[in-house]
């Protein structure tokens, strides 16, 4: 499987942030998005995930699973309930491999609201394998993780890559993955004149 994006333009609000984004990620590869704050890494990930419609181009969002910057857990549900809920959304039942990969056994009966920031992050990331989708999209996935859990997460991503998946992530951390390329999103920066707002709006104000 190769995940390909061609001439994609991405917006945030009404502003086109990136244009003509073109790249491919093969099975087994990780693509690390680079660029300074505000360059458009989250914008690209949200567009790939289908959360924001592209200005131009198409994305096969059905093959993508997204771990956003926010954990997005249901705070009143336990860890087990959160994972089971998520698994069912994707037509699956068995949460055991994800529980094992992210070392969550001891936390299964705890309410998400009562977890530490790093524990919440692990639960949020454990949803990725539950989707059984090949393209993992991740926005700063290691935030709040200590060194041991960064390593745990790196192993989970490595297993995903070894089993035919691929990963696209914004991160400043070297996960030690074997086959990693970087993509600097600033090369796709749209200029001010590319914005998608109504060109006559100013005249009407
Ligand atoms: N809701 C919004 N409406 C309009 N513009 C937004 C919105 N959210 C973000 N932006 C702008 O879109 C641009 C791209 O932001 P984005 O979050 O994609 O950058 P980033 O590369 O992920 O940054 P960081 O490294 O700080 O996380 C920035 O100029 C940002 O200010």
Under CATH, the homologous superfamily reads P-loop containing nucleotide triphosphate hydrolases
Q: How large is the share of residues in beta strands?
A: 15-25%
Largest sheet: 5 strands, parallel
Structural class, by secondary structure, is alpha/beta
Question: What is the fold named in CATH at topology level?
Answer: Rossmann fold
Q: Give the CA-CA distance, first to last residue.
A: 50 Å
Number of E-state strands: 7
Low-pLDDT ranges: 201-205
The total number of structural domains is: 1
Describe what this molecule looks like in 3D:
30% of the residues lie in helices and 23% in strands. The protein is of the alpha/beta class. The chain has a single domain (2-204), classed as 3-Layer(aba) Sandwich (Rossmann fold). The strands form two sheets. The protein has a five-stranded parallel β-sheet with strand order 4-5-6-3-7, sandwiched between helices. The termini are far apart. The protein binds adenosine-5'-triphosphate. Keywords: ATP-binding, Cytochrome c-type biogenesis, Membrane, Nucleotide-binding, Translocase, Transport.
Summarize this entry quickly.
The chain is α/β, with parallel strands linked by helices and 205 residues long.
Ordered list of secondary-structure elements with their pairings:
Elements: E1 2-12, E2 15-26, E3 30-34, H1 41-49, E4 64-67, H2 79-89, H3 96-101, H4 117-131, E5 135-139, H5 147-162, E6 166-170, E7 180-184, H6 201-204
Helix pairs in contact: 2-4
Residues 12-13, 15, 17, 35, 37-43 line the site of adenosine-5'-triphosphate.
